[in-house]
Design brief:
The protein has twelve helices and 16 strands. The chain has 290 residues and is of the alpha+beta class. α2 crosses α3. The longest helix is centred in the middle third of the chain and has 14 residues.
């Protein structure tokens, strides 16, 4: 049972909310200060942490955890932490109008982070830009947080803006695309249709080597919209049904079966939630998507 004395104190997670910083950032900072140390099954107080007022409390639901006096939030070291808050990829995505996954892909394309076995890992370039590597205690996954002013970084802001413009539904009045045919993808591919630009952008940002308008390995002059050689997967975009009959689509499917290749069909309605659709389809093929 938690007594009245401990109820007046703050858990480390609650203290992070008071300081308005990510909880994992606070745990990492307290470890760097020497107040706590990491154990296999959680965190332990150091002598220094006990001196600062930390103590243990036990509950049936959470087990043993550390609590701190409320006034610890005014500690000069923690006030300095509050003055140097960091933001996550999720926060960056909300302000830029793109998904958390797309933010991480942009950061990876810039070379600031890289995908690892346990999540996103900070690179030397990312550290130079103020990134901090953190680990989620419950899942063990890695992620990176960034200084608040990173959102104003000119290159990052520009690249997030490109992703926003490519994926948004209404593009008719957009300065980036108006009267620009062919459309130029980030990876340099040229496209005559915005739907193909969206797919190409997704493939490149997700790290998949791909060919556009690839001729099929048959005698007839037939071309696939996209081909991923490493995965032996073709992608066909059926966003414009005009002039495309059911028989033509079935003929194409039969051809892919003969070739022993997988094909992913993208319909017009899929383009507004392309990340969800392609991620699901790729995972069905046993292909990992970051």
């Amino acid at each position: 049972m938690i007594d009245e004395r401990s109820a007046q104190k703050l858990s480390t997670s609650a203290l992070a909310k008071v300081l308005d910083v990510p909880s994992q950032q606070l745990f990492s900072t307290l470890k760097d200060y020497g107040w706590i140390r990491k154990l296999d099954d959680g965190w332990a107080l150091s002598t220094k942490g006990e001196f600062e007022g930390g103590e243990y409390v036990h509950s049936k639901r959470y087990g043993r955890y550390i609590i701190w006096p409320e006034e610890i939030a005014q500690h000069p070291l923690l006030q300095a932490l509050e003055d140097n808050r960091h933001i996550s990829a999720t926060s960056l995505g909300k302000s830029a109008g793109v998904s958390t996954r797309e933010v991480n892909r942009v950061l990876a394309e810039l070379g600031w982070i890289k995908p690892g076995f346990h999540g996103w890992e900070l690179t030397a370039s990312g550290e130079h830009h103020g990134g901090v590597q953190l680990e989620n205690d419950s899942s063990g996954t890695f992620y990176v947080v960034w200084p608040q002013d990173i959102a104003q970084h000119s290159v990052l802001s520009r690249e997030l803006g490109v992703s926003f413009d490519i994926y948004k539904e209404q593009q008719q009045t957009d300065d980036l695309f108006t009267d620009q045919a062919p459309y130029s993808s980030v990876d340099g591919h040229q496209h005559s249709k915005l739907s193909h630009l969206k797919i190409c952008h997704w493939l490149y940002m997700a790290g998949f080597v791909h060919a556009c308008h690839r001729r099929l390995p048959v005698e007839e002059p037939l071309f696939a919209d996209f081909y991923l050689p490493a995965q032996h997967v073709y992608i066909e975009c059926w966003d414009d049904e005009e002039g495309v009959g059911l028989s033509q689509r079935m003929q194409r499917k039969e051809l892919y079966q003969v070739l022993g290749a997988s094909v992913i069909d993208i319909e017009k309605d899929d383009l507004n939630h392309l990340d969800e659709v392609l991620t699901r389809q790729f995972r069905k093929q046993g292909i990992r998507v970051y």
